[in-house]
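[recover] target loaded
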């Protein structure tokens, strides 16, 4: 059963101390798949301290919450979410360069950081220049491309936990393929991180960024809403190859379709519902299992699906 209106309004009044608060916000506006039902509350925190304090407040009142970065790896259900979405990208996005290290707040855009580093002649982050993520989401997912990943740069991560502030070393973050400790500690919020790069030449860095971006533009269906690669690659085989072999290229359920350009991108071509997308995912999985004998694993994270649909 949903929270009572009065109860929500009391929480909203308190949350206003920490930033801008909105009610009944469609999650399709904050996910790159452009899918999802409404969230009862959305808080855009006004500073790093506000983020920490809001997190501690929500924990103390046992109010459900979820941090959403750019929402570029989320498949939100069509259901209403009776909790608070925390967003960081409006105000918690600063970074500070000290020699070859950078302290960056969790709401910073990965793409903007890649360009900012180029300007100060720091190399190594070119691979990330096309990933539509915030630093918090990229760290939690250990995002990666071209055989590099976030773990290659992280030296420390500052985290808000139910016991207060924690600073984790890279080892303590337990990074692995598209995973980290943060997925196993849902009550933790990444506040900021220290990353390390190497000195480089501005022209070389920009040339590599351009190359990476051209490759993405030529191989990915960026004209449609998506969450990037839907399934994990196998150690010895790309997921898109299995999907094509199973005859799923172009397969469609409602407004959701297996991209004609890149078979591991499931795209929202015509006002899809989250249920369309989930049914398409299930269909692709069963066809791949039947044809290739391989079990595809979702890379995209499902959020706010009731237990029966998990
Ligand atoms: C066109 C396109 C291309 C893509 N290319 C790549 C690619 O090359 N490589 C790759 O790895 N991924 C890629 N992705 C997927 C996606 O961008 C990454 O998974 C990214 O890391 C998600 O970041 P986000 O900020 O959008 O996180 P979200 O999708 O908003 O959230 C992801 C998870 O991180 C958690 N989270 C977010 N912020 C915090 C925080 N501050 N503290 C704790 N938890 C937090 C969320 O709660 C959620 O569980 C692509 C996606 C698209 C749409």
């Amino acid at each position: 059963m949903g929270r009572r209106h009065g109860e929500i309004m009391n929480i909203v009044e308190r949350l206003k101390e920490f930033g801008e608060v909105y009610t009944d916000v469609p999650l399709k506006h904050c996910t790159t798949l452009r899918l999802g039902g409404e969230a009862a509350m959305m808080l855009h925190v006004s500073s790093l301290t506000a983020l920490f304090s809001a997190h501690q407040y929500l924990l103390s009142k046992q109010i459900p919450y979820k941090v959403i970065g750019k929402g570029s790896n989320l498949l939100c259900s069509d259901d209403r979410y009776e909790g608070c979405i925390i967003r960081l990208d409006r105000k918690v996005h600063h970074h500070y360069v000290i020699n070859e290290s950078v302290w960056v707040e969790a709401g910073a855009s990965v793409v903007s950081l890649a360009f900012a580093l180029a300007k100060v002649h720091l190399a190594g982050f070119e691979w990330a220049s096309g990933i539509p993520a915030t630093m918090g989401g990229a760290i939690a997912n250990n995002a990666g491309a071209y055989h590099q990943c976030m773990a290659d740069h992280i030296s420390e991560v500052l985290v808000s936990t139910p016991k207060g502030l924690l600073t984790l070393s890279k080892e303590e973050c337990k990074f692995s393929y598209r995973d980290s400790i943060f997925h196993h500690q849902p009550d933790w919020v990444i506040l900021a991180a220290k990353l390390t790069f190497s000195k480089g030449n501005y022209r070389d860095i920009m040339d590599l960024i351009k190359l990476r971006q051209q490759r993405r533009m030529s191989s990915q269906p960026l004209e449609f809403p998506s969450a990037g690669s839907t399934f994990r690659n196998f150690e010895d085989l790309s997921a898109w190859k299995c999907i094509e072999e199973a005859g799923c290229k172009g397969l469609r359920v409602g407004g959701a379709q297996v991209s004609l350009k890149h078979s591991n991108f499931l795209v929202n071509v015509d006002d899809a519902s989250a249920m369309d997308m989930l049914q398409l995912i299930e269909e692709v999985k069963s066809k791949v299992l039947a044809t290739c004998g391989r079990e595809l694993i979702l890379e995209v994270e499902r959020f706010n699906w009731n237990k029966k649909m998990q």
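[recover] notes: Residues 32, 66-74, 106, 131-134, 136-138, 140-141, 143-145, 182, 189-190, 220, 222, 226-228, 301 surround flavin-adenine dinucleotide (CB under 6 Å).
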